[in-house]
Amino acid sequence: MLTKATAFMAAICLLITVTPLRADSRSIEVEALFENAAVLMINGQRKMLRVGQSFDGVTVVAADPASATVEFDGRTEEVGLSKRITSNFQVLQERRHTIARDANRQYLTNAIINGRRVQVLVDTGANVVALSAVQANLLGIDFNAGEPSRVETASGITSAYSITLQSVSVGGIKIENVQATVVAGDYPTTVLLGMSYLQHVKMQEHNGILSLTGTP
C-alpha cells in the first residue's frame, strides 16, 4: 500500500500532432510541450508561450512534457499526448501517468486543481484530497463556505472544512467534483492526493514506478 508520492519531472520536449481546436473562428493546435511552456499554432501563427503568457485570447495555464492546460473563451481545457483528440480537447482513449519514487520513497507529481497547477503527494492512506488553508488560498478556493469539522494533525486537533473541488487532473486524467478537506494553518505542507481522487484510477507500482491509468 502506498503511503506517499514522488517527483517526476521530464526535461525533454515531446512533439505531438493533434486535430485543431476551433472555438468560433479560432483555431488552436498544440505542436510541442516543454516544462512550463508549450508551442501553439493559434490561427495560423506559431507561438511559444510560457505558463501565464497569452496570445490572441489564449493563455497557457500549465504545461509539462506530458500535457498543457490552456484557457480561452472563458473556459479551461487540458490536452496531452494522444493519437486522437476531439474538437473540445477531450481525449478519447485511456491515459497513463507514471511517477518515479524519490529518495524519500515518496511519489510526488503535479496536478491541476480547479484549473491551477500545484504539486501533490500521492497518499492512499488519506480518505480524501487534503490541503492546508494556505494552499487553498493560493489556489483561490473559498473553503470557508465548506462544512466545518475537526481533524487530528501532528500538532493536535485543529479546525478543518469539508469541500468539493470542481476538478482534479493528474497527467490528463481529470476527475470532477472531488471531495477534499482544507486544514486550518499550513499543514499539510504538500497537497495530499487522497482516495477521493485515486479511487477513480487504476494504480500499479513496479520497481519504484507508480502508474495511474484512467479515462480523461
What does this structure look like?
- With 216 residues, the chain is mainly beta.
- Helix content is 5%, strand content 54%.
- The protein has helices at 133-138, 195-198, and strands spanning 14-15, 21-23, 26-34, 37-42, 45-50, 54-55, 58-63, 67-72, 75-80, 95-100, 108-113, 116-122, 129-132, 147-153, 156-170, 173-183, 191-193, 202-206, 209-214.
- Strands 11, 12, 13, 14, 15, 16 and 17 form a seven-stranded mixed β-sheet that branches.
- It starts with 13 loop residues before the first strand and ends with a strand.
- Residues 1-25 and 81-92 have low confidence and may be disordered.
Provide a short characterization of the protein structure.
The chain is mainly β. The protein has 2 helices and 19 strands. The protein has helices at 133-138, 195-198, and strands at residues 14-15, 21-23, 26-34, 37-42, 45-50, 54-55, 58-63, 67-72, 75-80, 95-100, 108-113, 116-122, 129-132, 147-153, 156-170, 173-183, 191-193, 202-206, 209-214.
